[in-house]
Design goal:
With 801 residues, this protein is mainly beta. The protein has a single domain, classed as Beta Barrel (Maltoporin, Chain A), CATH 2.40.170. The strands form nine sheets. It has a 22-stranded antiparallel β-barrel. The chain is globular. The termini are far apart.
Length: 801
């Protein structure tokens, strides 16, 4: 028996944010208008993808950059909002703070379990990595300079987990030029749901001619739109019936988010600057963010509390200066994240009872059967320390170098309490009140690296870049997982290997580590026909570290690699009024880390062979007339495995070879099977017209459309058939507004046609059980489908001062 690894994800703070919003509003009437330099309207986009400030059109990398002004125009407030407009990005989600992101089809359908693979995409907040397992930080987007999406391996400069791409959120920095700020409020209503609202504000204040502070605050309430309807369950073995009456609720899945950011900039002299920053956020989500199979649309029937409290803060320090003519940058950060959760797990209890009679194992101290209803109480604690020391030679020289040293250590303290009330002491995990299963583990991922890139201008038009990153990783997993029922499992308490190592566990039955040293490379050749047109070719490699399988019979999984072969061009005409950038590529993904729920519901990670992705992407922008702009971008990915994926893994990836005990092997997915999660085509289109109403008043009209093609849900064919595909969908947004130098007002509708776009699917335990492929249970298959937010209509008011 085994419980599945499924895990969906102060008042003083509120007062501080409210005070900031209120003081900013009051300041508007008394303060003269000052222009925020970060919000200037320009066709030139500056990025720092190569660790230098450069015009996006001069960087020989496939980059999508969404600047401050565009983020505001597109009504971007969180990850889901900006991911829609990144054509090379796909993702799956279990709700706020539970999204897993992929680039260019490098996705195998990972279930993001706490003990599984690290992400294949690196996430950065300014100079500091914030990549965490079990879902990226859902950072509220406000007063952000830009979001940069770097497609393809970025391993030499960004290292581990930038195997397929990197997303960077760059904040607006303190500015000594003057005092200014802004405040915005939004009210919205969600179809089939409730009402939401947002309040956000920032101020930039010089402290002297060499120091300034920038303070940002936000509060957001997302309305729910899924209903938890009345239902009851009868367990077959005991005949016990119970209902969900205490948890019936309309608009079940609301979210509350609030937080702030403060940054101080001090120019010590003309060459040296230090910028300490502190940022924190609390996000409380209620309910489930997926509709349930067998019910009406936008309905679920849940029987236990469901709530996640995701709190995090990051303290960062950036030091920039010069040693001679060389630039020096130090970037260090400490990230602390804590997610406490409550999850319904009654589906597992019902299906294992209905199919295997597991209800007979759950009894009280008198030997009487108890209600086997099961729920999870979890605490995930993350700590990440990262440090980078980087040197860069003068950018104007014909030979340029950037390189340095990097270190990070991420610790994940995992606690999952699977609880059945009133069970007997003899089957309760020692040290707990009523746990039928406990996971209490400490996972540590360490990464050390030295990196460098050198670029030489061979001629005035031709340049070449060579780069490498030498890395060492060491990852470990230690602690306890299991239950107290000797004789029925390979890992009950009696099989523990030693005394307590992880506080809160009854003993230790897992203590493993894996490590490796290697290097990755990058080669690039760029030819500039003119200042406005270049072509480039890149060969680059990215990697993702290996790790531990907590099932004792399985070995550690090894690192996997992506080799990228890319040709691209960037062109602009008419003083940057027209831009067309495009790239074609082939990605060879070797030793693919595939994670899935295996025997007894335990997550397994295997190096499942190789895959190949061929594709292309483009971005077209035109300012057709004064105030009239169009943007069209898209990507195509043909992503397939190139070897059979076998029931039992083997080095030759030959499914005719038997399993370790001589068991017959079988093909779970033949060569040529499409990789999951990523559509063959994803694209978006935007049109905006800004015009003058009077000498002091401007107006705009805007429309956007996002298309996501059909995606498969799993690499394995049988499981794919059970879960079903994710069909294609299109969302359309419209907005219109008025503004002058001091204020703005707009109305908007998001998802105009109320599209039910599917962005993820899952079953609460292994597919053969909770998917009920043979249709033998009264409940039928249990599949949860995560959807785009229904049509949302709102109004937004803002002021700048």
């Amino acid at each position: 028996m085994r419980v599945s690894d499924f895990n969906p994800s102060s008042n003083p703070v509120r007062l501080t944010i409210a005070a900031l919003l209120g003081s900013t509003m009051l300041a508007t009437s008394a303060t003269a208008l000052a222009q925020d330099p970060a919000a200037s309207n320009s066709d030139v986009i500056i990025v720092t993808a190569q660790k230098r400030e450069e015009n996006l059109q001069d960087v020989p990398i496939a980059i999508t950059a969404i600047g401050t002004e565009k983020l505001e125009q597109l009504q971007v407030t969180d990850f889901d909002d900006y991911a829609r407009y990144l054509p090379s990005v796909s993702y799956q989600t279990t709700g706020p703070g539970g999204s897993n992101v992929y680039f260019r089809g490098v996705a195998s359908g990972e279930n993001a379990n706490h003990s599984a693979s690290l992400p294949s995409v690196g996430m950065y907040l300014d100079e500091q990595p914030i990549t965490t397992i079990q879902g990226n930080l859902d950072i509220h987007v406000y007063d952000i300079a830009r979001v940069e999406a770097l497609a393809g391996p970025q391993g030499t400069l960004y290292g581990a987990s930038s195997e397929a791409g990197t997303i960077r959120i760059i904040t607006n920095k303190p500015d000594t030029s003057g005092f200014y700020g802004a405040a915005d409020v939004e009210l919205n209503s969600v179809s089939h749901g409730g009402e939401g609202y947002i309040g956000e504000a920032f101020i930039n204040a010089p402290l002297s001619d060499r120091a300034a502070v920038r303070i940002v605050g936000w509060y957001k309430k997302d309305a729910g739109y899924l209903d938890n309807i009345p239902a009851s369950i009868t367990f077959p073995t005991s005949g016990i019936t119970f209902d969900n009456a205490p948890f019936v609720e309309k608009d079940y899945n609301d979210v509350e988010t609030y937080g702030g950011r403060a940054a101080l900039r001090i120019d010590l002299d003309d060459d040296w600057t230090i910028t300490p920053t502190i940022m924190g956020q609390k996000q409380v989500s209620h309910g489930l963010f997926a509709q349930e199979s067998g019910l009406e649309p936008l309905q679920v029937a849940q029987f236990n509390p469901e709530r996640f409290n995701d709190r995090w803060y990051q303290a960062a320090l950036t030091i920039e200066g010069k040693i001679g003519s060389w630039d020096l940058t130090y970037a260090g950060a400490y990230l602390n994240r804590r997610i406490t959760g409550e999850s319904d797990y009654v589906d597992y209890s019902y299906f294992y009872d209905a199919l295997f009679g597991y209800g007979a194992y759950f009894y009280d101290n008198n030997g009487d059967l108890v209600n086997p209803n099961q729920y999870i109480q979890s605490v995930d604690r993350f700590e990440k320390i990262s440090q980078e020391l980087r040197f860069a030679s003068p950018a104007e020289k014909r030979v340029r170098f950037v390189g340095g040293l990097f270190y990070q250590r991420q610790e994940h303290n995992i606690e999952q309490n699977y609880i059945i009330d009133n069970i007997a002491d003899s089957i309760t995990v020692a040290g707990t009140d009523s746990n039928i299963w406990l996971t209490k583990q400490l996972r540590v991922d360490r990464d050390y690296a030295a990196f460098g890139e050198i670029t030489a201008d061979v001629t005035d038009k031709l340049s070449a870049t060579m780069g490498t990153r030498i890395y060492y990783y060491k990852n470990s997993l230690v602690g306890f997982f299991g239950y107290q029922n000797p004789g029925y499992s390979s890992n009950p308490i009696y099989a523990c290997q030693g005394p307590v190592i992880v506080k809160g566990s009854p003993c230790t039955n897992l203590d493993k580590q894996t490590s490796d040293t290697d290097f990755i490379h990058k080669l690039n050749v760029t030819y500039k026909f003119t200042d406005d047109a270049l072509v480039y070719g890149t060969v680059s490699r990215g990697f993702r570290p290996g790790g531990i399988n907590r099932r004792g019979s399985l070995p550690p999984y090894q690192a996997d690699f992506v080799d990228n072969y890319e040709l691209g061009f960037k062109t602009s005409w008419w003083d940057n009024r027209v831009r067309l950038n495009a790239a074609i590529y082939q990605l060879d993904w070797t030793d693919v880390q595939l994670s899935f729920i295996g025997a007894n519901g335990l997550t397994e990670i295997r190096n499942a062979g190789n895959a190949r992705i061929r594709g292309g992407e483009f971005d077209f922008y035109v300012r057709a007339a004064e105030g009239l702009t169009f943007n069209l971008s898209g990507s195509y990915n043909d992503a397939k495995i190139t070897e059979d994926f076998c029931d039992f893994a083997n080095q030759a990836f030959d499914c005719t070879l038997p399993g370790p005990d001589g068991d017959p092997n079988s093909v779970l997915a033949p060569a040529g099977t499409r990789l999951p999660i990523t559509a063959k085509f994803k694209g978006n289109a935007q049109a905006r017209y800004q015009f003058e109403v009077s000498d002091s008043l401007d107006a705009f009209l805007q429309g956007t459309a996002v298309y996501e093609g059909r995606r498969t849900s799993d690499l394995r064919l049988k499981e794919r058939d059970i879960i079903g595909d994710l069909p294609d969908y299109t969302t359309v947004d419209l907005s219109a507004g008025l503004n002058n130098d001091k204020w703005s007002a707009e109305i908007f509708v998001r998802n105009l046609f109320d599209s039910r776009g599917q962005v993820g699917k899952l079953v609460p335990c292994d597919e053969d059980t909770c998917g009920d492929p043979d249709g033998v249970t009264a409940m039928g298959p249990k599949i949860y489908t995560y959807l785009t937010q229904p049509r949302t209509i709102g109004i937004k008011l803002g002021t700048k001062f």
